[in-house]
Design brief:
Elements: H1 3-17, H2 23-39, H3 49-64, H4 72-98, H5 120-136, H6 139-160, H7 170-186, H8 198-221, H9 240-257, H10 261-275, H11 283-287, H12 295-314, H13 321-343, H14 356-371, H15 379-397, H16 409-415, H17 420-433, H18 441-462, H19 466-469, H20 472-489, H21 495-498
Length: about 500
Amino acid sequence: MPEAPARSSAERRCRLLLFAYPAQYRAVRGDEIVATMLDAIPAGGRPTLADELDVVAAGLRRRLGTARIDGLDGGLRQAAPVALTLAAGISAFAWWRVEPVSFGSYMGGAALFGVFRTLGPIAYACWLMAALGWAVLRPAAARALIGFAIAATLALPVVAQLTTVDRPPLWVVMALSAFGALALLGTAPAVGATRPGLDERLAVVTGAVAVAVGGWAVTVAWPPDPGTVRYYYQPTLARVSVVVTATVAAVAIVGIRERDRRQWLWATALLGLPAGWIGPFDTTALLQTAPRFGRLAQVVLATCVAVVALAWLSRRTAARLRAAGTFALGTAVGLASFALLARAGHLGFAPGAVPTYVWCGIAALALTGVLAEGVHSGLFGWAAGAFAASFVVSMYDMNWSLAGWSVPGPSLNLVMALALPPLSACAAAAAVALRPGTRRAAVSRRAVAVLAVSLGWIGYVAVPYVRSWGPVILVLAACGLALHQSSRSGLGRTGHERG
């Protein structure tokens, strides 16, 4: 008799989890899902946290429509061990070759335990434990370690504010967390993941060692300039980005040779996103140039290329040129508003001139949006978002302070990196509109003009600083290869287009 109330409580809990699914799907498959969960629960027990998270993840996949994207689940499964290998390898290299204060001059705050530059080793230890857990533990326990490593990494910027020890660079925190997210998603039962074989489990550990040793070998073969001030993690850590890039390129090459290319193309694009955040090769040289294409712009551009590749692979309907134009026009309005207020000495800035480069970039955005017929009420939403993002970038440039800023010129140069996403979206939409099968000549003419202006400005900003991209350019090439191959093979086309 006592079992019935417990069973009823477990069933209520299972049905509560079903709200992660769309209503129509719950109505058709809800009872089946609950019955399956109850069968897996011991008498008098309740679903484990891992099972609950898997059910919620499966429901969210249904809500977001990712469950119907061909090749995505396979791509996540292929990317998962590679992502964990890279996260553990980067952590090992950083702990070994970057963190010790004995390597080069140290200009940070207090040293962790008197030995390390930042709080990074706390998270790095978690990533190494996650890699070892992958090799020896059951999948549920191994995934728990990955989740813990992600949480520890994301907590570092917050913990650093409570101590006198610096945090690792935000780009490193972002990259490790994104690689961990790929490892976590790619090992979930919701995407069809099963327990990996012994060789795959050991490959993660040996691969992590190879990434760390490879980063050291690149540093030895191409040492930083002896006169370089080794602030924060640069330029030493950027050397490991060569190994990260080579790994992503290897995944792309394997994908070309495999029969089922789609999942490998997905893996390439997914891994290319965080891989683009690790470079560039020589930040010091980059900082000696005009701030037109700085560290933020490099990361944003790499992100745009990877996102375009992901969007192309997942697209089921043609991208809308007008929607991309609204994005560009709204961003132009937001950036212009921010620049005018900053010029007048508001928003925390001292009064000062706005660089001509900034006005030219805003004009390029506005022209692209008008050519794409982006005049739509939705532009005001994008304008508000661009204004808020501009303020955040300015805070970042001013060491996260809220007032007492200098003249706006340098910060506005940095803010103009926000023009890259809408211009990239317009270029991608225009490329889709120009594909064979487009019959409207007016659309083709507009698409050509949009493509010329958007790519023209991106090229003007980025190409003169191509040497500062470092190995990221190889990641961009790998993502471009994914785009090209998907187009040639029909992998990025809709069913109607293939027919």
